[in-house]
Amino acid sequence: MSPSLSAQNLTTLGGLLLVLAILVPFAGMLIGFVFGGGNAQRVALATLAAGLAIAIAIANALAQSGKAVVYILGGWMPPLGVALRADGLSVVMLLTVAVVICGIGVYARADFGTPSGVKEARAPLIFWLLLLAVWGSLNLVFVSGDLFTLYVALELLTFAAVPLVSLDGRTETVRSALRYLLYALLGSVLYLLGAVLLYGAYGTLDIPLLAARVRPEPAAWAALALMIAGLLAKTALFPLHLWLPPAHAGAPAAASAVLSGLVIKGSWFLAMRLWFDVFADVVTLPAAQTLAALGAAAILVGNVVALRQTRLKLLIAYSTVAQIGYLFLMFPLATGLATAGLDSAMAVNGGMLQAISHATAKAAMFMAAGLVYTTLGHDRVADLRGVASALPMTVLAFALAGASLIGLPPSGGFLAKWLLISVAITTAQWWWALVMLVGGLLTSVYVFIVVVRTLAPAHVGWNPKTTVPRYQQAAVLALALCSFLLGAAVLCPVDVTQIGRTVSRNTVLP
Amino acid sequence: MNGPTLFGLCAAALVGFGLYGLIVNPQPLRKIIGFNIIGSGVFLLFGAIARRGAAVGMGGDPVPQALLITGIVVAFSATALAVALLLRLFDEGGLVTLASEAPPTKTTADPPDA
């Protein structure tokens, strides 16, 4: 074993934090389950605060050491044991998820709160438990260093996300949940088949060991194709997106925000991890172009169908279909840079920024749509008059989140598209730049339609059905601002996402 | 043809049958069964790999066997969740189908306040 490989197999300072990041949400879930009722909400909110602190502590440990944070479970070295690793990419995603989940938690206090004296209901209890379960599973996806642990993490994520779809128990939502589950099961079984083939060919599932052993040959190609196809079904990339709009639009607003903002990023992150960290020597430019072609189709189809929607939540759900497309445009760009012998960090950073700005913006948009629904009693796009006077902060949040999706400066979406478009020009793949520009134009049309309609004055004598608590509006605005101001990441002195990643590059055996 | 190769081919056939059934059958219960058939194929393949990778004097490589058990547990829970959703769907509407009244791409049939 080369010295750099064995250095990755030592528990680093702060390694225990990775265990806590997974353990704390699941422990919170079990405690909430035992105490039940209104206590579940209190336990969940306390866990959210603790989890955010843990995510910040992990980021601090990474920044201090400048190396990936590693924890070896039980002291057993890979390939026999299992390692948890958090490099720059993982830590950035851990932080994003912590921030978004906390925003959603604050928002959901109004919808799923159980005030003392009120009889406990099932939906709030399940919501809080599943919110923590989704968080724990996502953290496990981000820090697992082993492809089989990642399979288990993906399955946990699915099992936590599917019931969120059918939280209100209507027939239509149960059907969407079942459809989602079937797509997800197909995806995970294909992923598992790929992992099994890799074990059969190379005798390990540990990511750095595998990256060092994998060679461009039929077994690796088959495994890569199966795993990526499975993950695409879970991420809902066109043409496997059919389950997403009904599932995301039918769920309660807070649950939609979790599903659309965060859950799909889990499988996308894993696809990226496989592509860049495991199969870096196997992937080819044509394969990456195929992925991006699907992404481009998703951008065009998703945006055009979103324009034709009459209900706000479905419009936002189709916008998610389109935004997922952007996440896959980075693959040929990064591979193109690598083939040209350049550092692919710029394209990877563009993709990461797109994921983060979409997570925050889409969570804010779904929650804003939830507030609009509470105020009007419906969410027909054609009839949004008076919303701006009743919910000024929410409309501002929707507009800011929309600006980030379109890619207006100084939003995170702008910086992401800027990076991706510059790489597209550098690597002479101008067609992807064109797709991004057209996509931004289409996005701007539906964002402007919604915002302009909310600005119309209300009918005389119209009153909001319910008054929305101020803190709910503030939570939505805070997440939208996170997305809008993410462009400030350009001022960050260190390339955070690349910390701890170069190590795996240098370990490729001759 | 030696044992592991035979089992590997059987596994490939199972995965193929299951995938075909999962995609072609419109009924959700058959899709769930299709998923289970693919799962059996994957587990059989993993078992064959464990046998092929056996060290001298051992019956099989223990790592795939340990992973295999976990995989079976996960697949079992997935099936249980899917069947529970299916039963709930049957209780609600008396009809078990994945086709909704309004196909996802058209919104004309959507009830306005749903």
Automatic annotation (TrEMBL), chain A:
GO BP annotations of the record are: ATP synthesis coupled electron transport
Location(s) in or outside the cell: Endomembrane system; Membrane
What are the residue boundaries of the NADH:quinone oxidoreductase/Mrp antiporter transmembrane domain, all occurrences included? 144-443
Query: Which superkingdom, per the lineage?
Result: Bacteria
Q: How does it sit in the membrane?
A: Multi-pass membrane protein
Organism this protein belongs to: Candidatus Methylumidiphilus alinenensis
Tell me one GO molecular function of this protein.
NADH dehydrogenase (ubiquinone) activity
Q: Which UniProt keywords apply?
A: Membrane, Transmembrane, Transmembrane helix
Question: Which Gene Ontology cellular component terms are annotated?
Answer: endomembrane system; membrane
Q: What is the lineage of its organism?
A: Bacteria, Pseudomonadati, Pseudomonadota, Gammaproteobacteria, Methylococcales
Q: State the Pfam families in the record.
A: Proton_antipo_M (PF00361)
Membrane-spanning intervals of the chain: 12-36, 43-63, 83-104, 125-142, 148-168, 180-201, 221-244, 256-276, 288-307, 314-335, 355-376, 388-410, 430-452, 473-491
Question: Per its record, how is this protein called by name?
Answer: NADH-quinone oxidoreductase subunit J
TrEMBL record, chain B:
What are the alphabetically sorted keywords of the record? Answer: Cell membrane, Membrane, Transmembrane, Transmembrane helix
Location in or out of the cell: Cell membrane
Domain of life of the organism encoding this protein: Bacteria
Can the keyword Membrane be found in this entry's annotation? yes
The cellular component terms of Gene Ontology attached to this UniProt record, alphabetical and capped at eight, are:
plasma membrane
Coiled coil regions, renumbered to chain: none
One family from Pfam that matches here is Oxidored_q2
Asked whether the UniProt record includes Repeat among its keywords, one would answer: no
> Matching InterPro entries, A to Z?
CPA3_antiporter_subunitC, NUOK/Mnh_C1-like
| Transmembrane regions listed in the UniProt entry | 6-25, 32-54, 66-87
For membrane topology, the record states: Multi-pass membrane protein
Q: Hey, which family's this protein in?
A: Belongs to the CPA3 antiporters (TC 2.A.63) subunit C family.
Q: What is this protein called?
A: Na+/H+ antiporter subunit C
Query: In which organism is this protein found?
Result: Candidatus Methylumidiphilus alinenensis
Tell me the lineage of the source organism. Answer: Bacteria, Pseudomonadati, Pseudomonadota, Gammaproteobacteria, Methylococcales
